[in-house]
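Whiteboard transcription, Tuesday session. T.W. wrote the structure tokens on the left side:
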């Protein structure tokens, strides 16, 4: 591992009883910390910091970790925060996690003949500029040119926080677990508390998003559901829907955060707060599939699941036990085992490997949004002319990024089309006299009111469990579909139904086994559990007066629905 040394100085490592003198050398892809002697006898004396592992580097006046890391002309210390990746073995799988490292250095000014303070400050800021410049992968130029280089001013990240999510500890969680990472990374941010059900939806649907680099939910999955649907109620939805979004798991379900960790083979530690906060601060971004849900009188954009029967019943009917946290799910599961419910329904679907036989329909339509019962909203008392494959994440292809993933730094700031919105960045799109208009994509499939296509398959049965999922986990400890990935373009159907048994009755032992093995995802492969990989489906319950129908954990009116997957329709920061 050799290359040209771009910068070299001697520093003291501070914070120890005896400050240790070391040599710092900057290469194009790494920093090397070693003893000042020319001959190093032991490689263990050398520390390598890979630039891509660095979250933040700052020249500061004080050496305290609580320093706000603001720029200063006369700094005394160089602080580096980095998170090297480590492999860990868990349940026979090799996963990875990040280990936090932090070092505080002071320049050895004994080597300077004059102007020590000025030279020291200039040199420390030069290190900061050089490391940040190399970490961005920019072409190497002379030292003074790099010192003069100024990165574009970064827009702040907005965090929308539901103070009633989970057990009502969202705000304290944010300042304890999220804000420190943002400060280490030097990322500007703002925190906004939601005040009522659908507040996040209204904000994302009406306010200007031009001033934000990304918008992150600090809550359960319900707040992100509000945000996504708000984006698709905007006049400028084509551009606004590309706004990078993310989630900090501060609710009781947290299915998406757990699914993202599973997809990346990352160990999910505790409540997942530390690793998701680090992911947001690092700014890695990936395409996320959405699913368009159509009912008889409303439409929804979904990122997690559609649920009916057992799992939906447990989720919704345990709402009054939210103060117990995740244990509420287990208590209601036991009750449903004692008294199982069967739901008669018709289910039609298009398998993933079947041709779609898509037909062209109207270019783009919108309908007034019908507010659904939001009494189950997290913590609140009540509550394609448009070709999606071509629309997806153009921010990468238009800027010559070859991969399907990137970072917040690599994504250009969102600019709205002149014919869609005002050029005033502070403009909003609210109209107090009009209902929000939900954009309906031209996905090429028949609408819910039209007949089921001939190439779809249909079955009618008594269902005990039926869920349509597009993420691996519906909650931290609920792995329903281990094959699902955030951007695989598929919906996975999981069914347990009476028709698979001679007497039409599902054994309680099977239901118990399903619930006990959901943490590992084993039941996905059980011979008595039907699993399908589809692109679209239609679900028609025979009795609308019974059962709980949910979209991303939010209850909607029980009745016929149709779902179509929209590959890569959103940007997720993780």
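and on the right, the sequence the group agreed on:
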């Amino acid at each position: 591992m050799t290359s040209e040394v771009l910068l070299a100085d001697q520093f003291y490592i501070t914070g120890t009883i005896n400050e240790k003198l070391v040599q710092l050398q900057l290469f194009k892809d790494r920093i090397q910390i070693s003893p000042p002697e020319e001959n190093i006898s032991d490689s263990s004396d050398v520390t390598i910091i890979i630039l891509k592992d660095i979250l933040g580097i700052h020249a500061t006046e004080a050496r305290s970790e609580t320093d706000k890391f603001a720029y200063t002309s006369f700094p005394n210390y160089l602080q580096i925060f980095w998170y090297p990746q480590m492999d860990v073995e868990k349940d026979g799988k090799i996963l990875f996690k990040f280990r936090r490292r932090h070092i505080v250095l002071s320049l050895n000014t004994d080597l300077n003949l004059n102007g020590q303070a000025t030279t020291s400050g200039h040199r420390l800021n030069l290190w900061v500029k050089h490391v940040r410049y190399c970490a961005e992968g920019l072409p190497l130029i002379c030292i003074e040119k790099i010192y003069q280089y100024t990165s574009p001013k970064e827009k702040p990240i907005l965090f929308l926080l539901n103070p009633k999510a989970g057990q009502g500890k969202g705000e304290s969680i944010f300042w304890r677990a999220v804000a420190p990472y943002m400060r280490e990374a030097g990322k500007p941010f703002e925190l906004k508390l939601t005040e009522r059900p659908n507040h996040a939806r209204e904000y994302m649907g009406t306010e200007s998003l031009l001033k934000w680099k990304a918008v992150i939910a600090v809550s359960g999955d319900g707040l992100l559901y509000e945000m996504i649907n708000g984006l698709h109620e905007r006049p400028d939805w084509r551009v606004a829907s590309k706004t990078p979004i993310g989630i900090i798991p501060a609710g009781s379900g947290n299915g998406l955060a757990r699914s993202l960790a599973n997809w990346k083979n990352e160990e999910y530690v505790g409540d997942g707060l530390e690793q998701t906060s680090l992911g947001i601060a690092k700014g890695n971004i990936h395409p996320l599939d959405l699913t368009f849900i159509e009912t008889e009188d409303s439409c929804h954009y979904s990122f997690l699941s559609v649920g009916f029967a057992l799992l939906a019943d447990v989720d919704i009917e345990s709402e009054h036990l939210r103060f117990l946290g995740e244990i509420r799910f287990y208590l209601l599961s036991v009750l449903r085992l004692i008294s199982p419910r069967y739901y008669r329904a018709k289910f039609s679907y298009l398998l993933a490997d079947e041709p779609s036989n898509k037909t062209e329909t109207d270019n783009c339509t919108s309908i007034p949004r019908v507010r659904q019962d939001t009494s189950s909203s997290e913590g609140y008392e009540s509550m394609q002319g448009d070709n999606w494959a071509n629309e997806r994440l153009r921010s990468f292809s238009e800027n010559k990024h070859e991969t399907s993933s990137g970072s917040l730094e690599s994504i250009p700031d969102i600019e709205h089309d002149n014919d869609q919105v005002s050029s005033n960045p502070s403009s909003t799109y609210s109209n107090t006299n009009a209902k929000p208009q939900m954009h309906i994509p031209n996905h090429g499939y028949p609408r819910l009111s039209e007949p089921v296509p001939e190439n779809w398959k249909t079955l009618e049965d008594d269902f005990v469990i039926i869920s349509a999922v597009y993420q691996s986990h519906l909650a931290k400890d609920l792995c329903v579909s281990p094959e699902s990935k955030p951007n695989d373009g598929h919906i996975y159907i999981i069914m347990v139904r009476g028709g698979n048994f001679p007497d039409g009755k599902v054994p309680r032992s099977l239901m118990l086994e399903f619930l006990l093995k959901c943490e590992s995802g084993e039941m996905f492969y059980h011979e008595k559990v039907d699993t399908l990989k589809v692109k679209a489906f239609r679900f028609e319950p025979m009795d609308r007066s019974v059962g709980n129908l949910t979209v991303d954990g939010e209850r909607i009116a029980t009745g016929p629905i149709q779902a179509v997957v929209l590959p890569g329709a959103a940007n997720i920061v993780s």
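Someone added at the bottom: Residues 116-135 form the longest helix (20 residues).
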